[in-house]
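Action item from last meeting closed. Structure (192 res):
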């Protein structure tokens, strides 16, 4: 099973991706998480990444495309994967689709998490206290949401047009357990 989750930061897609990945024994690929791990390398690249990420801007497509290609070629992705945070731009989407085509695989489900940005701002401020992420403060959140509208919202539209019958909208302003139920209901139907 191969799945993409779209949604603004703070929409809960990471939490849901983890739960679905565990349930179906597939690999959760969070590009935000992979990049945060790279920050520990303390090399030239990590300094650049830290600057970009802590300002709420997007890391260049080339770096992301390389990370994803490496990940998808890995054995752990053979039984399936959930992409959480990628693709975030049109060039990343084009790269992903052409990469998957060369491997003769396709995406089975796309979920688009919808939520009011005011709710997101509140949620991220709470998360900032728990996870101490440098990009979880009000100014940076605004940049991240702007970037989402400018760069990633057109991407979800691109996929909705291309994959209309595999594309599902999720009301992300609900309890974790309710959202999980809705996701599983769709995924189960797809198994039949
Ligand atoms: P996230 O945890 O998904 O919100 O990602 C945290 C930060 O990592 C983002 O604000 C970006 O700076 C960077 N990032 C993660 N995924 C991508 C991507 N697909 N393209 C560009 N930058 C990304």
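Sequence:
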């Amino acid at each position: 099973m191969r799945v993409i989750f779209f949604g603004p930061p703070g929409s809960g897609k990471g939490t849901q991706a983890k739960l679905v990945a565990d349930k179906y024994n597939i690999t959760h690929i969070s590009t935000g998480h992979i990049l945060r791990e790279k920050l520990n390398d303390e090399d030239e690249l990590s300094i650049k990444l830290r600057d970009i990420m802590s300002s709420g801007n997007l890391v260049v497509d080339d770096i992301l495309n390389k990370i994803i290609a490496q990940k998808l070629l890995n054995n752990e992705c053979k039984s399936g994967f959930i992409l959480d945070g990628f693709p975030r731009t049109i060039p990343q989407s084009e790269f992903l689709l052409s990469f998957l085509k060369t491997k003769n695989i396709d995406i089975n489900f796309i979920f688009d998490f919808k939520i009011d940005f005011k709710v997101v701002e509140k949620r991220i401020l709470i998360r900032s206290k728990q996870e101490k992420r440098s990009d979880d403060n009000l100014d940076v959140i605004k940049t991240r949401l702007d970037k989402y509208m400018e760069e990633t919202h057109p991407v979800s539209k691109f996929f909705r047009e291309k994959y209309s019958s595999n594309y599902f909208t999720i009301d992300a302003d609900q309890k974790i357990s309710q959202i999980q139920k809705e996701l599983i209901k769709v995924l189960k139907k797809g198994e039949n």
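Note appended to the action item: Helices lie at 13-24, 31-38, 44-55, 61-73, 90-102, 117-131, 138-162, 176-191.
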